[in-house]
Amino acid sequence: MKVTNPSITNLEEIIDSLPAEEKSLFQRIYAVTTAVGELRPPQSMEPWVRQQFGSVDAVTRQKIVRVSNTVTYEGALFNRLRALRPIEAKEKGSIAAQLVDASENDLFAYPEEDTPEDLFGRVVGKHCVTASNIAKYDGLHGLVIFNDFNPLYFSREQVIDYIDVAREWARRAQAKQPEAKYFFFAWNCLWRAGASIYHGHAQVMLTRDRHYAKIEGLRCAALGYKQNYGSNYFEDLFQVHHSIGCAMEKEGVRILAHLTPFRDNEVILMADELNLSLKQRIYEVLACLRDRVGVTSFNLGMVTPPLGETEESWEGFPVMVWIIDRGDPDSRASDISSMEIYASSVVSSDPFELARQLQHCLKTEAGYG
Fold first, then answer.
1. Are 296 and 190 in contact (CB under 8 A)?
2. In whole numbers, what is the pLDDT of the chain averaged over residues?
3. What SS3 state is found at 364?
4. How far apart are CA 79 and CA 264, in angstroms?
5. Residues of the chain with CATH 3.30.428.10
6. Is 259 helix (H, G, I), strand (E, B) or coil?
7. pLDDT class for 365, splitting at 50, 70, 90?
8. What angle do CA 274, 275, 281 make, to 5 degrees?
9. Residue 267 predicted with pLDDT over 60
10. pTM assigned to the model
């Protein structure tokens, strides 16, 4: 029987309602359990509880859904009540006002004068220019500095240009060091997402020997999955999300509202190559998160298969993009704690609601399971 109003809180019912083959595939990748957290607040606390959480009953029995990826060992604990918890540490002033203040001392206002360049020079796009990162993560580590100061003021054309310039940087970097083949693109939007400089910019890296640890771990997990089940992990991951209504496809790009997100509102995009369609979808997802979901600070990571031949196998590994919401930039309270660092992600957003918002924004015809 089809579940009406699907949400993360009734994920177990949704799985049980799937056809046998789809249910088996889901359970091959994900394990789902639920727990109930119970408490008894003192009577003196009840007025505050009602004001903060809507009712006393909402907190006395709390349903927590635990989703674990048994292939990659990613996991998330979902409790929407956590979105309502009090956060006392708040900055004063709007994001726009803070950015106006920061723009008065803009370190990236004149990048060709005030930032170093790579030994192979700069890549200049219509809406951005590259620089060499002065404090590097890796031997080949550059910046894509946006012409627009405010990183939230991005258009379709700008996002495409940022990615094109990043890829050209990687091409020139590899020409300089042919043994460097592993490309990674990262966009940290605003201070909440780890950007030390507020002016819009992204990071570009090209490393050698092997890809970065988490990406290498994902590659190995996918190869192990192929050996065990004879099918492509990434295709099955999409099918599992699609079967419950948390994925859609548009012009060759698969888009997932991730069931084991690192932080709230995580979206994964996958495509066979870094083509125009993928760049368009990246813009559309970012614009949806910004304009419809209300995301004002985010992290974006993009990985491609290696730029040259390697000893290890990358068969079936797609171009992948991850985007996560980093919460309210006005909050000084960190959204990452010991749980996220050492144990499991704790999430207040609902992948099913995120999927509905993406479905609306991208205007696809994908059905819901």
1. yes
2. 91
3. coil
4. 11
5. 8-91+210-362, 106-208
6. coil
7. very low
8. 90
9. yes
10. 0.92
